[in-house]
Amino acid sequence: MSDLRALYQEVILDHNKNPRNFRAMEDADRTLDGYNPLCGDRYVIYVRMNGDIVADVSFTGSGCAISKASASVMSTLVKNKSRQEAAKLFDQFHDLVTGKTAVHGNADELGRLAVFAGVSEFPARVKCASLAWHTLKAALEQQAHPVTTE
Amino acid sequence: MTIHTDHVSVQSAKALDVARIRRDFPILTRKIHGMPLVYLDNAATTQKPLAVVEAEKSFYLTLNSNIHRGVHTLSEEATAAFEGVRETVRNFIGAATTREIIFVKGTTEGINLVAHSYGLKNIRNGDEVLISGLEHHSNIVPWQLLCERTGAVLKVVPLQDDGSIKLEDVTALMTGRTKLLAVAHISNALGTVNAVKSMIRIAHERGIPALIDGAQAVAHQKVNVQELDADFYAFSGHKMYGPTGIGVLYGKETLLEGMPPYQGGGDMIKSVTFEKTVYNDLPHKFEAGTPNIAGVIGLGAAINYLQGIDASALEAHETELLEVATASLQQIDGVRIIGTAKEKAGVVSFITKTIHPHDVGTIMDREGIAVRTGHHCAQPVMDHFRIPATVRASFGMYNTKEEIGRLVDGVQKVFEVFG
User: Fold this and answer.
1) pLDDT digits (tens, 9 = 90+) for B120-152
2) Max Cα separation, chain B?
3) A125 at the B interface (CB within 8 A)?
4) Which chain A residues are Cβ-neighbours of B412 within 8 angstroms?
5) What is the pTM of this model?
6) Chain A residues in contact with B362 (beta carbon < 8 A)
7) DSSP codes, B285-301
8) Which residues contact B365 (CB under 8 A, 6 or more apart)?
9) In Å, how far is A105's CA from the nearest CA of chain B?
């Protein structure tokens, strides 16, 4: 039960139930689909840039609790960040869920990302957690094709 | 009328000795996350009894050599064992002759063989291939590829909201251009048992041949291809307690005779010169290259194992598991069963009101329960119900009512975790 609790933390369950920035964005200048063919998770990430700054980010779509909470937390974290800062958050997140970094001693820097540390104990769920982040990264790098986790 | 055994005969059957059966499957004693394994993913692949594992092992330890070649003793013995299994398969599905039994990798390859060989020869621009709305991707995509190559049209008999296919819809979609009917015997995603015997009859009344995807059927009910009058019937070893990488395509001899080879190579020829190659006789014409010999031996052991079990007792047991699971899951608030056709085999697909199947699957796994979550390679089925995925519990001969209890407890646990 303890590792299940570590995965399905209150923060994650809350973001799943009440996702933040969960809306389409009409004045988005970047819109990208993210799709996980394994489980059918499918999101659209909307980004509005102001120069090099992510002025607004939102998402729509559906998927499991991990993928939805991850998209929601991501949307709150990258807003008003520079493209470079967003890329750094992506790397931190990726290292965290793949078990490359431990939370201990890092908690301050990881901030709200830390709630996803439990994912590393569930290798089958890493793709769920990363889907929105991969899609955002591609959107910021202005890829034209939809992103899949395959 | 389907060949599904009705309840009257089921209840008179003697009970299955599940405890004895479970001892034949060593993997069932495994613990997963500290909990005894409850394996409910039998529609994906079944576990293998010791007899199958030992048969493959024994082949490699005592008999290994190539078949249909050489005069040495090992090769002769291996050939005899291999061809012996062809007879075992013939008997198992009630085919007229072993010339109608073609060894393939699995159901998927069997269907692809028919699409390539029969399809490319007989299906032309403007012709129609008719499938149903509950098909596995392996009975959709080969026909789409064929249609792309030929200009033929893929038509789909609509799925009803209970997960069934109506015979009148099958009839209504058949036209003068329909060249093949291809349907599943049992739906892997929903458990629906199709009335394939009637569907085949309807097709034959119009001179249309029928292919049946039997992947989910052969391990769970008695199948007789001549009684069904199927023109092609494909199934996989690994879903019937046999090895992966081996399956069977049954085809009526008259049809197979008229079909060109599927792949070229060794074993499928009588003679080869650079000017002309003479193809081998059935069934070898369709078996190019060294086959999965050990797999065939394992498949033979799996069939022997299945035939050692009373078929009506087996079906009664799995029907009981289905009924208990359906009744108990229906009682849980927030659970909805997807696929409620009258005729069903041992598959229960379900969703919860608020929790995604993937989350359900992860929590179940921590309880030691192996269920499948996802679209089950049947995305059009999911689209029909406007859902991305389901949780699927599918039963085998070794499952027990106690394990269904664990499944139900597991679902309760999911709601507990999500609060």
Assistant:
1) 999 999 999 999 999 999 999 999 999 999 999
2) 74
3) yes
4) none
5) 0.92
6) 4, 7, 122, 124-125
7) GG--SS--HHHHHHHHH
8) B32, B33
9) 28
Distant-in-sequence, close-in-space partners of B135: CB < 8 Å, separation ≥ 6: B182, B183, B184, B213, B378, B380
Ranges assigned E (strand) in B228-296: 232-236, 247-251, 269-272, 277-279
Select from B288, B167, B150, B303 the least CA-distant residue to B241: B303
B363 alpha-carbon distance from chain centroid? 28
Nearest C-alpha neighbor of B288 from the set B258, B262, B249: B262
Contacts of B242 (CB under 8 A, 6+ apart): B48, B52, B295, B298, B299, B301, B302, B303
Provide Rg for chain B, Cα atoms. Answer: 22
Half-sphere exposure of B390 (CA within 13 A, CB side): 29
**Longest pairwise C-alpha distance within chain A:** 46
Side chain identity at A57, as an amino acid letter?
A: V
Distance CA B166, CA B181 (A): 14
Closest CA to A50 of A36, A29, A67: A29
Closest CA to A86 of A136, A128, A17: A136
Mean pLDDT computed over every residue of chain B: 95
pLDDT by 10s per residue, chain A, length 150: 578 988 999 999 999 999 999 999 999 999 999 998 877 789 999 999 999 999 999 999 999 999 999 999 999 999 999 999 999 999 999 999 998 877 665 666 678 899 999 999 999 899 999 999 999 999 998 765 667 666
Tokens 């807003």, residue? A79
Nearest CA in chain A to B382: A40
Task: Find the chain B residues whose C-beta atoms sit closer than 8 A to any C-beta of A.
Answer: 355-359, 362-363, 366, 373-375, 379, 382, 388-389, 417-419
- Which residue, among B92, B179, B56, B59, has the nearest Cα to B129 in the 3D structure? B179
Of B153, B173, B377, B387, which is the active-site residue?
Answer: B377
